[in-house]
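re: that chain from earlier
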Amino acid sequence: MVSLVKLCQWLGLPRRTLYYRLKPRRRVINTDLAARVKLALERFPTYGYRRLACVLGENRKPIQRILQLKNWQVRKRP
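^ sequence. v structure.
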């Protein structure tokens, strides 16, 4: 049997990498912003996240995150 130290040395990996466990993050959605996004989407159904962000006067990243998590992404043209 080979120790983890030797195995990591052979593979060229730090030992820390073997013990790393990813922590699942809960995505928190701003409900007020989500409601505003939904109203804007109903009014402008063909707008993407960038144009919605301009209309709402917000950053595009939270808008994009809300659209992705709620599955409200606009379909691409064929």
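The chain has a mean pLDDT of 90.
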